[in-house]
């Protein structure tokens, strides 16, 4: 197959708010600096649903979504030294070129190299797509497009992992779990003895709980409007629960009252700007730090009284938990293999790839943390 176009199955998003359509697509060979990957397993993250629902200002259609996956390198383009055919890999939507201004800074995990291309649904070389259906180009998504049996990614956007790793599990290390763990360990740098509030107990929020517990947080308050999440969340480290629907006061007030003035750290894992405000305002005066993880819809803006910041609260945000992807994703895989981090526990469902729309329904329905699709 090397050097040739591959014809395979992919789930095409033809337009916002339409079910995905699993059909035959053509995947062109990788060009210089690119890698073609056979995706074996992909999960569905809320960001895929958000984009499919037409809420992403960068969302382009038709496209192939998907960004939390694992697979095996099928072929590489000219000049690629990072990986070779047969390597087990995790595609990384947050690239790491190790050369740009961002990569050379230890203050960020963002990479500037391929971002202009990935934001426009194309590959950097020629600013074109490698996917087509009957000759019509289909856009890439987040530089990963893992809802396809084969995808083409930039070589700087693929992490080579331990060949002993089970791909049907560690595909989750492509987004949600690293995001939650890293938000705690890299962005907030939660200390032992801290109090924490987590808004939204999906896979991201529960990874925050796991990270906070590992960091030695003594009180971890889970906030969700779906009480079905509470029992589950205990296994990930949550010690107390708050359902905003059961309180008439603003939820920040409820948490401030529960914690003698507020939490040391809070995390917004929903993508709701009102909740982002609550998450900031439930932080303790003088030092409380709130981290925005959730992705808000196009046009939404955050607000609070500046006095909240004047009096020492800090508002932060994180992408992929601050992890430098190509360097640190393989380290997270090792941590999983050494049983130092949970992954299996986040997999609530497994489905064949053909049932991808059912996977989206499960996520929307609130019963699924992560559904792994088997390609
Ligand atoms: P999810 O859908 O599995 O979980 C969201 C949770 O929020 C659910 O349990 C839901 O019941 C709860 N929720 C919804 N509305 C709520 C409200 N008003 N108050 C309290 N809880 C509420 O989603 P996920 O996959 O865990 O992703 C969470 C968010 O993180 C999404 O916005 C996603 O786009 C974003 N995300 C960001 C990054 C990043 O790098 N910054 C990475 C991954 C995901
Ligand atoms: N494109 C959107 C924002 C989407 C967004 O913020 N994506 C996160 C990852 S979510 C993974 O589930 C991210 O990494 N952002 C940093 C980046 O470089 O995209 C918008 O609002 O335009
Ligand atoms: Zn994601």
From TrEMBL:
It catalyses: a primary alcohol + NAD(+) = an aldehyde + NADH + H(+); S-(hydroxymethyl)glutathione + NADP(+) = S-formylglutathione + NADPH + H(+); S-(hydroxymethyl)glutathione + NAD(+) = S-formylglutathione + NADH + H(+); a secondary alcohol + NAD(+) = a ketone + NADH + H(+). Residues 203-334 form the Alcohol dehydrogenase-like C-terminal domain. Gene3D superfamilies: Medium-chain alcohol dehydrogenases, catalytic domain, NAD(P)-binding Rossmann-like Domain. GO terms for biological process: small molecule metabolic process. Its cofactor is Zn(2+). Belongs to the zinc-containing alcohol dehydrogenase family. Class-III subfamily. It comes from the Eukaryota. One of its GO terms (molecular function) is metal ion binding. Pfam families: ADH_N, ADH_zinc_N. Keywords: Metal-binding, NAD, Oxidoreductase, Zinc. Its EC number is 1.1.1.284. InterPro entries: ADH-like_C (IPR013149), ADH-like_N (IPR013154), ADH_3 (IPR014183), ADH_Zn_CS (IPR002328), GroES-like_sf (IPR011032), NAD(P)-bd_dom_sf (IPR036291). Residues 32-161 form the Alcohol dehydrogenase-like N-terminal domain. This is S-(hydroxymethyl)glutathione dehydrogenase. It comes from Riccia sorocarpa.
